[in-house]
Amino acid sequence: MPTSRTYGDACGIARALDVVGERWALLVVRELLFGPQRFSDLHRALPGASSNMLTDRLRELENHEVIRRRRLPAPAASTVYELTGSGRELEPVLLALGGWGLRFPPPPAPVHLSATSVLLFLRGSRPPDRLPATYRVELDDHVWTVRVRDGRIDVEPGEPARADACLRTDPTTLNALLDGSGSLPAALAAGNATVSGDEAGLRRLFTAADSGTAAHP
Hints:
Elements: H1 12-20, H2 25-31, E1 37-38, H3 39-45, H4 51-63, E2 67-71, E3 79-83, H5 85-88, H6 91-101, H7 115-123, E4 133-139, E5 142-149, E6 152-157, E7 165-169, H8 171-179, H9 184-189, E8 194-197, H10 199-213
Parallel strand pairs: 4-7
Antiparallel strand pairs: 1-3, 2-3, 4-5, 5-6, 7-8
Helix pairs in contact: 7-8
């Protein structure tokens, strides 16, 4: 059931933790950084959270106006969760916390890596050139538009109007391509990725993340 525990401390840090300090709360916020998600999407992205736990966190975050529920119009007609303006203000806090957390070793295998985590890693990279390009990236049956423009990388959910290249893979494989621990030929040979279009452009995109300009998720 939802918690109403408090630190009873007037410090702003303690008051913030009263709102987002419960287990899974900040990871729910992370998963909503790129846009609205259904309950099933959030549960798949956070497999370690039980349905009841996730329901409690969502209710608490909604009560504190960090997130809100919205009913999509037909034909989707499903309920999604999205960040409010207040919730959006947590983004730099989360990114800073993620960078700080990299000093600690990762948990023992097997570990889970969500698409959002990998795409945040990619978005924090700087492209090696300023040539504009658009890529269609499909991860876990969800499609993302990745744009390189003005020396930065933008990521948003949904289909691009046009794409210079298309990549279909899973978050773990994409992460290996981005951090340099895997190669595209090996991923293609193993059937862990499929590519169409400008493969050289995709390789440049991977180089951007592997250049050390972004924090590993």
